[in-house]
Design brief:
Layout lengths: L5 E5 L12 E3 L3 E2 L5 E2 L2 E6 L4 E5 L2 E4 L14 E2 L9 H9 L8 E8 L6 H4 L7 H5 L6 E4 L4 E7 L3 H6 L3 E6 L2 E3 L24 H6 L12 E7 L17 E3 L13 H10 L18 E7 L6 E3 H13 L4 E4 L8 H12 L4 E5 L17 E4 L1 E3 L13 E5 L3 E6 L1 H16 L7 H10 L20 H11 L22
Parallel strand pairs: 7-20, 14-16, 14-18, 15-16, 18-19, 19-20
Antiparallel strand pairs: 1-7, 1-21, 2-5, 3-4, 5-6, 8-23, 9-11, 9-12, 10-11, 13-17, 22-23
Helix pairs in contact: 6-9, 9-11, 10-11
Length: about 500
Amino acid sequence: MLGLSVWPILFLIKNYASHSGALDVGLYHVLPQCSYLISIFSSARTEHHIHMRFTSFNVAALAAALLIGSTHAGFPDEDDGSLSRHLTGVINSDGPSDDDGDTIDLIVKYKNQDLISFITSHSHDCNIAEKYDIDKKGREISRKHQLEAITIKKSNLEDIQKDPDVRSVEFDYKVHILPAMHSYDVEAGEGEPRLLEDTPYGIDLVNPAPRLAQGNNKISVCVVDTGYDNNHEDLPHLNSVDGFSSYPGQYWSHDGHGHGSHCAGTIGAIGGNEKGVTSVNPDPGKFSFFIGKGLTDNGWGTGSGVLAAVQKCVDKGAKIISMSLGGGDYSSMANDQYSGHYEDDGVLIIAAAGNSGNSAYSYPASYASVMSVAAVDSNKNKAIAGPGVSIQSTIPGNKYASWSGTSMAAPHVAGVAALVWSHFPNCSNKQIREALIASAQDLGADGCDHDYGFGLVDAKGAYDFLSEKGCNFPTGDTQGGCYQCEYLIAC
């Protein structure tokens, strides 16, 4: 499997907020190399027929193989025994319970941010959390977006929905990394030490020699995942203020799972130190990390936990957010927050498309303001591909492992975005996104097509595009799909 290369490809895919019509996610095609190609389409109904359209901006970078039946991403490879046999058990036993007795977890959007209990616990006689939360206090998600998580008795649900200070209420949904879908009998955290530095083939594909070097403008990349091994020999050492955890007793600088450290290593493992692996951004002095622990050490989390971590990334100045996770249905609150960060805060948000074979949207990747990541194989088979194979990176304990899935694809795209942006600090997040599209190597039919999107991502190509065009070209509205091409200067 190590010899099979996987090509990254950029997709711009249409997201339909109305969700009218069926969705067909996960059209499988099994290659001789045993990689499973996965598509993400929206079947949008017209008056006369149903036709296929992409659901979100799908930037396919390097990912890896083998998936059936989840909306998330990230697999172990059989050859080095690295991820975990406990992942399947996580889905059945270690995650949040579906039966929480007489209480339910909610995300509440207020009409006024001053109603969030964290802000005004002493300035109001009785705020919403004090009225309804079982512990008389809420868990702040976003002041800007007036969001708070609370746990209430089921009997109070109707009352809080009718409360005049509440704009809307949603159930807090579960989020997690992708479970192992095949019989990989391996222990969590297993991997191997490395005495010499390797260049993972994914780096060669997204930034081939002669490589585009990092620019002089440090770009902050936030990884929202299971945490970060801050003691790893091949990862930049971060300060205490360089991370945030959404969960009490769970520390961002500890990665009890390994998924977050693996993703971070692809973006920014230290190069030139003759240890382990190099990365898309090998010089830690020319970029920075912020870590948002949106998932717990067992790979599970909540929608509110992920949104709180994303908000903290933005508050701390991150320009790029990388998320290799998924779960839950469409959320208007999440959509509004991601859209706000993209449209108003100038943040580029990148998420794994997932490897689902069911008929559900994959979120957060399917929001129009989020770049969704998938891949094709080295033979350039149809861009309905999800994962590739054997991405080498860092895992806790000064070890290294090859894992597979669209989880491994998203950090390649995030790393390339940071690399290109470091040369053009005056460009907007939208211009960086569109430079990646405009410079992609076209595959399939001329221009954007529903098989290959806009083509193969190319770091040097994006750099050349911005060198020629500068940062003054218009970007238009965020449309998604090939319709985005109407606003692209390259089109």
